[in-house]
Structures are given as structure tokens and as C-alpha cells.
Write a structure and sequence with these properties.
The structure is a single chain. This protein is an alpha/beta fold and about 350 residues long. It folds into two domains: about 150 residues, Response regulator (Rossmann fold); about 150 residues, Rossmann fold (3-Layer(aba) Sandwich). Helices cover about 50% and strands about 20% of the residues. It is built from twelve helices and twelve strands. Strand 1, helix 2 and strand 2 form a beta-alpha-beta unit.
Length: about 350
């Protein structure tokens, strides 16, 4: 009996040793491969397209630095929230370790959150910020982006600085009032509302009087903005002194309309000041070519890198890269930057 008990004890110990050695090896193997699902609200949005390119480039650097394989599964929601909800289920079925969501509707994140929570898959929302109360619903929800109000303030400051330098150059009709049109991104979208409000408030708080000639939704879209600008040119002619746009694509649409009308070729025709936001490659070129007075750099590279580094840290359990700070255990915030001619930010880093 003693011999039998001794043999049984030895066998149990041997099995424990085998099991104990195998489990860490399995965990280590899992950390060698990370699968990240990404859903973008619209793949044809220029800023989002540049952000995703930056993410793919940074992942290659991470694979080499960390000795892991990172698989990105990128899906386009096509501006449809129901489609994006279904994509969350697809990511779960595909066995993604973490999911990054560029929300179609920032006020409608519940379905995605509940599906992620049920499957215990962390979610990083990016660029289009969800409602704060939704982000607090689970401890594995994060956000990477910028504070929208900053972009509106900086856009307004660019105009204020131009007015301080040469008011008459902007106030071409000499009435002491700045007449402007506003191209808004999206009905009810936080960035549209905040950028519009803070840009104008910044100008008026600096002591300048403004008059709104028109304000239209162009859905972040260059062609729609061009159409709006053509209509405004027919209605207001040279009465438009400033064009505010919630993003560079819409600012470029306004520029396109002016070009087709011959404004850049005829020195007699008075060009309005154009202001964008995002600092896309085309937007930066427009600043360099003096077609825009300025734009506001929304750091697509920083957001992409921060999102990928956070995804790796959450899945692996390692510390977040020291390049980024996780605020309130939820947020990575990247500051906006002013871009005007010759301020050394008119090229992508």
C-alpha cells in the first residue's frame, strides 16, 4: 500500500510539473500573436485613410521591436451604424484580441459595448469620441483622440492673428465687419458643433465683429463643399471674406470652386480667406501654396501610434509606451497644432 501511494503521489507530481510547464508556454505563444479588429466609419474620409496608413506602418515597427506578429483586420462601416454593430460581432467570431472602433454615431455605442463586454474583448474607440457616460460603462473601454474644442479655438486664433497683422487685407469691403460662410461636417456631430462654435467665439472674444452669410452641412465631403461654395459665390459674390471649414476636405472643396471660377488667375477677383482643420497632406500643401490661410493639425500619426501601442499594452499586460500617457485609465489625448505658412509643419512627419 505504501509503495502504491508513493507511486500515485509521484505520478500526480509529474503530471503537475508537465501541466505547470505547458501553461506558461501556451500563454507566451498567445502573446506572440495579436489580432486587432478595426472598424472605420468611412474609409473614404481622407483623415481616416491617412490615420489607417499610419497605423499599418507603426504596426510593422512594433512587430520588429516587440518580436510579435500583429494582424490588423480593417472593416469599413460605410457610415452605417448597424453595419458597424455587425462588424463587432464579426470581430468576436474571428477571435480578435481587441477591437478599435471609429464610431459612425458617437451617441449610439451601446450595442458595440455590450457585445464586447459579453465576449470580454476590450474596445478602443478613436477619433470620433463617444459619450463620456458610455465610456464609463466598463473598465476595458478606452478612447484615443483629441479635444475637439481645441481645434475650433486654434482655427479662430489663426484668423485673429491675420486680422491683427492686417485687418484691411481680410475686411476687403472696409465695413469693419468680417463676413463669413461656414462649412459644417455633419449634423449633430460633436466635432462639427464644437469646431463651429469655438472658432467663431474665439474671433468675437478677441474683439472683432463678424457676420454669418451662410452655414451649411457638407458631411466632411469635398464635392459637397464645392457645390455649396458655388451656390454661395452666386449669391454673395465677393462679399465672402472668410470661409471656415470643419475639415480640410471641405476647405479644399471651397478652394476647388474658387479655382474653377478663375479666382486664382484673375488678380482683380478678391480671394476670401480659407481655413481648414485636420492637417491632411492635401491641406498642408494648400497652406504651403497659400491657398489656405491655415489649418489645424489633427495628429493622425500620433493617434494611430497611440492606438496601436495601447492595444498592445492592453492585450499583453505590459506597460504603455512612455511616449503616451493614459489619462484616468481611459484616454490618450493628442494636442492639435496650428499650421500656417512657414511654421515648419506643412509636411507630414
Amino acid at each position: 500500500m505504501k509503495k502504491l501511494l508513493a507511486r500515485t503521489f509521484s505520478l500526480v507530481m509529474l503530471l503537475n510539473l508537465i501541466t505547470g510547464c505547458a501553461h506558461p508556454a501556451e500563454e507566451q505563444e498567445e502573446l506572440k500573436n495579436i489580432k486587432i479588429g478595426i472598424s472605420v466609419y468611412n474609409q473614404y474620409d481622407t483623415f481616416i485613410s491617412e490615420l489607417m496608413t499610419a497605423a499599418e506602418e507603426h504596426v510593422q515597427e512594433m512587430e520588429e521591436a516587440y518580436g510579435i506578429t500583429i494582424t490588423l483586420d480593417v472593416q469599413n462601416a460605410g457610415s452605417n451604424q448597424v453595419t458597424q454593430n455587425d462588424q463587432m460581432s464579426y470581430f468576436i467570431d474571428r477571435g480578435c484580441d481587441i477591437v478599435c472602433i471609429n464610431l459612425v454615431d458617437r451617441t449610439d455605442a451601446s450595442t458595440i459595448i455590450e457585445r464586447g463586454k459579453s465576449a470580454d474583448i476590450p474596445i478602443i474607440f478613436f477619433n470620433r469620441e463617444l459619450v463620456e457616460e458610455d465610456l464609463e460603462r466598463w473598465d476595458k473601454l478606452y478612447y484615443v483622440g483629441a479635444d475637439a474644442f481645441e481645434s475650433g479655438i486654434i482655427q479662430g486664433q489663426i484668423l485673429v492673428e491675420a486680422l491683427e497683422e492686417d485687418f484691411a487685407a481680410v475686411d476687403r469691403n472696409g465695413d469693419g465687419v468680417i463676413q463669413y460662410v461656414m462649412l459644417e461636417g455633419e449634423a449633430g456631430h460633436q466635432d462639427s458643433i464644437v469646431r463651429t462654435m469655438y472658432a467663431i467665439n474665439t474671433v468675437t472674444e478677441a474683439g472683432y465683429e463678424v457676420e454669418k452669410l451662410a452655414d451649411e452641412i457638407a458631411n466632411w465631403n469635398r464635392d459637397q463643399a464645392k457645390t455649396k461654395m458655388v451656390q454661395w459665390m452666386q449669391e454673395f459674390g465677393d462679399g465672402i471674406e472668410v470661409v471656415f471649414a470643419n475639415n480640410d476636405d471641405m476647405a479644399l472643396g471651397a478652394r476647388d470652386a474658387l479655382k474653377e471660377a478663375g479666382y486664382y488667375e484673375d488678380e482683380v477677383m478678391q480671394l476670401p480667406v480659407i481655413l481648414g482643420i485636420d492637417g491632411t497632406t492635401a491641406g498642408l500643401e494648400a497652406v504651403e501654396n497659400e491657398e489656405f490661410l491655415g489649418t489645424v493639425l489633427n495628429d493622425s500619426v500620433g493617434q494611430a501610434n497611440g492606438m496601436m501601442e495601447l492595444a498592445y499594452a492592453v492585450v499583453s499586460g505590459n506597460e504603455l509606451s512612455t511616449e503616451f500617457t493614459l489619462l484616468d485609465e481611459k484616454y490618450i489625448r493628442l494636442p492639435y497644432q496650428k499650421v500656417v505658412k512657414d511654421n515648419e509643419k506643412t509636411t507630414k512627419e
